[in-house]
Amino acid sequence: KAGVTQTPRYLIKTRGQQVTLSCSPISGHRSVSWYQQTPGQGLQFLFEYFSETQRNKGNFPGRFSGRQFSNSRSEMNVSTLELGDSALYLCASSLGWGDDTQYFGPGTRLTVL
Amino acid sequence: TQLLEQSPQFLSIQEGENLTVYCNSSSVFSSLQWYRQEPGEGPVLLVTVVTGGEVKKLKRLTFQFGDARKDSSLHITAAQPGDTGLYLCAAFGSNDYKLSFGAGTTVTVRA
User: Fold this and answer.
1) Phi/psi class of residue B94: alpha, beta or left (left: φ > 0; alpha: ψ in -120 to 50)?
2) What is the distance in angstroms between the Cα of A80 and the nearest Cα belonging to chain B?
3) Do A99 and B45 count as a contact with CB atoms less than 8 A apart?
4) Over the stretch B7-50, which tens digit does the pLDDT of each residue have?
């Protein structure tokens, strides 16, 4: 079974631009969660989508948004990029109920200049 | 919001030595997870502990969940260079599906 894939793997943007990251979950998984990982703050939860609906949201500004499609693929968007948005963005997929296992993708490394 | 505190932050040991990583909180958890993350990769789940006092073994790795379900430890026996990585503890919120992570312990095992 193929794992979680994320595209692109690396991205360089400048302040003020916007960016869209993509995540393809494991086949059959209906939940996709997004995380931001930085050296200073560690791994922080952004949001989680289940069956095309945002089910949970972390404490990030409205510049961070996401969506999920009917095939469970998910995208996250960051608008008006700031230097502090430079991070590794990870997505994880799971079945979507209970304390089930989350399978992480390799991440997208975003650098904002 | 629960806070998971991990210690130590960094650990560098020689191959063959033992090490222990700790994860503590003031909150009670229904379950707690341990992940390992290698450079350029996402975290990979090692184990989930669910019962207070539970001990789980995964080859040379031993995981323990505190009796009060507020803390956990990861012990590696006879560490090998392949054990090098970032070890993260994590737990779901009591009323939601948000996974919160500790800051992590970077383990380096020197050959």
Assistant:
1) alpha
2) 26
3) no
4) 999 999 999 999 999 999 988 888 899 999 998 899 999 999 98
